[in-house]
Design brief:
5-stranded mixed sheet; 11 helices; 26% helix; 31% strand; binds coenzyme A
């Protein structure tokens, strides 16, 4: 039998797919109902809801969001966010994932996406399809009694904590959108997505009933928010052993950031604070009286990017220096992406044109790693991943030229799980 891929055919099939894909991740799930179901349905784009079929058996599927991705400089490009890729246990190895991925990428190109993004369950899976790590994140923890700030704040503002997120919704969305505009790697959330993150009990990839803390400045203007969950495994021992698990932390200034951290590390009954999907080098470390107390427990890939329209990606982002670089992309799946390309940057804006030859050729996954500045071309070359015909990592003019143009001083970040 050969595996074929088609669009999801009916509402009932959506429920079956939810259970099927959930099971591939090891969870026995039934599809949610009511408002939660509607929110999850509205998050994704029906054009990308795909089902893999072998004979008359459904053996897998995937979904995707249609979402804007912020680039260096603040502009956005449309992308797809691939999600929920799963193939039924016992039906693996038949090429179902490959068939789903190929159809997803074809549809993404047809819809005008500049790239496809995803979060990978396993790192070895997606390089073969041209995805490379474009946002890295870290998980940090700190004992709250060792989390004093170097310069404690006499905060003229205040923090409001909301047990239900509804009344905080507008302020949270505004702050998220402001962060998105100034941070490459951030992705837009549609209304369904916000309902999944903030609605009561809606928790597919959301934090599930988080507390929302909003900091307001002296004039009452919201300038930072955190979504957190509080767990207290030691409560029966009459000890303050709670963990404050920060799912999202967004602040629009250093002062706001200090004020909200100061609040979060002083929540009664808390012993430790954990912060997942955080920047690899968070500002918090520089704010602490004792920087060593912030343990970085894990650094990991978060968002992977598969370039689909290199001209759109490179002409929409901005650059920190001017210059010219020439390169090709070794793209077997989408030959029109190969170039070779000349990137000319003048006044921080890029222009992309086709040329005849290039000394430097990158795989699509390596473009994904460097296009937002998470890795550098020079770094990949010195690790032996990228080679050029005009020299090595240290002395190739073509490697140096592209590396210098793409490098950014703002590291990409993301707080949206999909
Ligand atoms: C990962 C998963 C989707 C693979 O499905 P599948 O139908 O067996 O995959 P395919 O047969 O299409 O394999 C496609 C390619 O991926 C490779 N591959 C499959 N599973 C792999 C794994 N776990 N690690 C590394 N490579 C893997 C195959 O060797 C094949 O390589 P090739 O085409 O270059 O020769 C399936 O095992 C699964 O559902 N796992 C649990 C859920 C999950 O992790 N989903 C991914 C979410 S991001």
């Amino acid at each position: 039998m050969t595996v074929t891929v088609r669009e999801l055919a009916s509402e009932e099939e959506w429920d079956d797919q939810f259970a099927l894909v959930g099971a591939t991740f090891g969870a026995r799930v039934t599809a949610p109902e009511g408002a939660t179901r509607d929110a999850i349905r509205d998050m994704a784009d029906p054009r990308f809801a795909l089902v893999a079929v072998d004979g008359d058996e459904t053996i897998g599927g995937c979904a995707a969001h249609w979402m804007d991705l912020s680039l260096p400089g603040g502009a956005s490009v449309p992308t797809t966010g691939l999600s929920g890729v799963g193939v039924r246990a016992g039906r693996g190895g038949r090429g179902a994932m490959r068939a789903l991925l190929e159809e997803h990428l074809r549809r993404s190109v047809d819809a005008g996406a500049a790239a496809s993004l995803l979060m990978a369950s396993e790192a070895p899976l997606y390089g073969r399809f041209g995805y490379g790590v474009t946002v890295s994140v870290a998980a940090h923890r700190i004992d709250v009694d060792r989390a004093a700030l170097a310069a404690p704040l006499d905060d003229e503002g205040h923090v409001d904590v909301y047990e239900t997120a509804d009344s905080a919704r507008a302020a949270v969305i505004d702050l998220y959108e402001a962060l998105r505009a100034s941070n490459p790697g951030m992705t837009a959330r549609n209304d369904g997505w916000w309902r999944v993150v903030l609605d009561e009990r809606a928790h597919w990839k959301g934090p599930a009933d988080p507390f929302v803390a909003i900091h307001r400045d002296a004039d009452g203007r919201p300038d930072a928010y955190a979504l957190y969950v509080f767990t207290n495994p030691g409560s029966e021992l009459w000890r303050p052993m709670a963990t404050l698990d920060v799912h999202e932390f967004v602040a629009d200034s250093v002062e706001a950031e200090k004020a909200l951290w100061q609040f979060l590390t002083r929540v009664p009954l808390t012993r430790e604070l954990r912060w997942r999907m955080a920047p690899v080098e968070p500002r918090l470390r520089n704010l602490l009286a004792d920087r060593r107390q912030l343990d970085t427990e894990m650094v990991s890939d978060m968002v992977w990017l598969r370039p689909l329209d290199i001209e759109a990606l490179l002409s929409a982002r901005t650059y920190e220096r001017d210059g010219v670089a020439v390169f090709a992309i070794d793209d077997e799946a989408f030959p029109d992406q190969r170039g070779p390309w000349r990137l000319t940057v003048e006044g921080g804006r890029g222009r992309v044109e086709r040329v005849d030859t290039a000394d430097l050729t990158l795989a699509p996954e390596h473009v994904g790693m460097v296009v937002l500045g998470d890795s550098t071309v020079r770094g990949l070359a010195s690790d032996g991943l990228v080679t050029a015909t005009d020299g090595g990592a240290a002395d190739s003019p073509s490697i140096a030229a592209l590396s210098d143009l793409l490098a950014t001083s703002v590291r990409p970040r993301s707080v949206s799980k999909f």
